[in-house]
Amino acid sequence: MLQLIKNRPFFLYLFSHTLSNIGLGIHLFTMSWLVLDLTESTSSLGWLLSLSTLHVIILSPFFGVLIDNWDRRLIVVVIQLLKGILLLTVPILLLTGTFHLYVLYGISFLMAIADRLYYPASKGLMREMLCKDQLLSANLVCTYPKQIKGFVNQNQSGMYPF
Question: Which DSSP string corresponds to the chain?
Fold first, then answer.
């Protein structure tokens, strides 16, 4: 496992994957909290969560085909940049007073689609940078960021003022 960390491309991949997972956890938490704070409606929160997951059922079968035909590095970089832009949109709109709930729904939907494209592309990228006998250990190491995201989410959810 230490040998994997010494592999610079894999280390950079793991580092960015970890940051992405932590950011996703914070995004899900803050968007949910924002909807509840602005609307005080669990129905609005339900719509937000539905728009964040509905696409998985409908679009995921087609994403694998797209990812296999495109450059995985380009997909990963472009998606991370787009996610950053989408995330910056919310505070800018809040600060300028032009924020509307439907914009948040759209951003959550687009973020969820971006994640559905990101994860298979990043796993394919991992297969390209490592040899076959390292993949099992690499997959194990790559589960840590998801565990960290779960830990962050669980700790944040205990902070709800309800």
Answer: -HHHHHSHHHHHHHHHHHHHHHHHHHHHHHHHHHHHHHH--HHHHHHHHHHHHHHHHHHHHHHHHHHHHS-HHHHHHHHHHHHHHHHHHHHHHHHHT---HHHHHHHHHHHHHHHHHHHHHHHHHHHHHS-GGGHHHHHHHTHHHHHHHHHHHHHHHTT---
